[in-house]
Design goal:
Layout lengths: L1 H7 L8 H19 L2 H22 L6 H26 L1
Length: 92
């Protein structure tokens, strides 16, 4: 659906970081509701926030470098998976 919107609205083209991150955020929310995966509760909002920043940057509202956003996303995902791993290790 997002790629279809991107055909008509350039900031959400199929290969844009915002589109990919919105798709990942939607997937995380769906996975959270279905499986209650702990990491999705953290990464879903993180992906959504990063997608909004990328979209605002694409629209020219803010000017944030891509090299500033991606490390925060990678560190946040890493922390989410480490927390889930630690919680799963404690439960078993």
């Amino acid at each position: 659906m997002l790629s279809f919107i991107g055909v008509y609205w350039h900031p959400l083209r199929a290969s844009a970081a915002a589109t990919i991150l919105f798709g990942m955020a939607i997937g995380c929310v769906a996975n959270w509701f279905r499986n209650r995966s702990f990491h999705c509760g953290i990464t879903g909002p993180l992906f959504f926030l990063a997608a909004v920043v990328f979209l605002l940057s694409e629209l020219g509202i803010t000017h944030v470098s891509d090299f500033f956003i991606w490390p925060f996303v990678a560190i946040g995902v890493g922390i989410a998976f480490l927390l889930e791993w630690r919680l799963a290790h404690k439960r078993s």
